[in-house]
Amino acid sequence: MDEILVKYLLGETSEKEEQQVKLWIAESVDNEKYYMHFKIIWDESRKLELSSHVDENAAWQRFQTFLSKKDSGKVEINHSVKDSKARSFFLRIAVAACLFLTIGIASYFYITSNTTISAGDQVLIKTLPDNSVITLNKNSTLSYKKSFNEKDRLVRLSGEAFFNVAPNKQKPFEIKVGNVIVTVVGTSFNIKADEEGTEVIVETGIVTVQIKNKSTKMLPHQKIFIGKGSEELVVEPNQDELYNYYRTNEFICNNTPLSQLVDALNKNYNVHIKILNPEAGKLRLTTRFSKENLDDILKIISGTLDVKIEHKKNEIFIK
Q1: What pTM value is reported for the model?
Q2: 294 and 220, same domain (yes or no)
Q3: Residue 9 and which of 22, 31, 115, 195 are 20 to 30 A apart at CA?
Q4: What are 144-170's pLDDT values in tens digits?
């Protein structure tokens, strides 16, 4: 599993491998903690200036020993990573691990003091200690300190969730999604983070979205999308209700691009629908799918937008 995790963090996994990693992470809290621990070492290693005289081989041995001490014991370290790029990756995090052993591994203890909620292949609804209600979409994760609601209300999100936040003016509710911070007092909104970026859609109340030193306020029926690597905060009106599909089991499209509907169908039905023509992905739909099965939905899409649907092995292609 470790080799696939390396490829995943390097952005070199196939679609099948990427799905395998996501499912593995969602399987258990132990897997989630292992991955977060692994990723933190990598992220921190990128911030450190590594001197040229570091003995990488010694660092590699210490890194193996370091990981082997974890409590779960479920994931076996692969000692024969053949790919040179993967080996280079391991050496970098090995050196970082050695430096952490010198200065203290604060990140690791932060993780172990967290509560993590993971949704596997089912949508999950949870009530937090402050009575806020969170709906986690499939393969999404929410984590927070065990001291949540004592001094602050800070959570971290990976994936997609709908938040119905309990009001508390003395303790604003904060969500960290990568380098984006969303702050509210009491409101309801949806956050989705994927490989393309982070989207926030507000239903009720006022939401503040911040990235680095920039911030903006959002009102009900507004949305914002921050692309990967972007710091632009452009608020737009939102007329689309498609984002609610995993809460309502309805796909409500209002001049919605086909690409967005396909993304929702893939997640909801756990299928692989691909749009072969980029122009087809820009075609827009205004409709409501309530109790239709996937085949019926695809037939309606085909007839409405005049596109062809082709089933091939485990994939569905839209031409």
Answers
A1: 0.65
A2: no
A3: 115
A4: 998 999 999 999 999 999 999 999 999
Indicate if 19 and 104 belong to the same structural domain: yes
Q: Are 304 and 283 in contact (CB under 8 A)?
A: no
Residues 37 and 133 in one domain: no
| Confidence band for 28, pLDDT divided at 50, 70 and 90 | confident
Beta carbons within 10 angstroms of residue 196's beta carbon: 12
| Residue 289: count of CB within 10 angstroms of its CB | 22
Residues 162/168/171/172 CA torsion (nearest 10 deg): 40
Question: Which residues neighbour 121 within 8 Å (Cβ) at sequence distance 6 or greater?
Answer: 23, 26, 138, 139, 270
Task: Select from 68, 78, 72, 82 the least CA-distant residue to 30.
Answer: 72
Conformational region of residue 306, where left means phi above 0, alpha means psi within -120 to 50, and beta covers everything else: left
Task: Provide the residue range defining the domain that includes 217.
Answer: 116-237
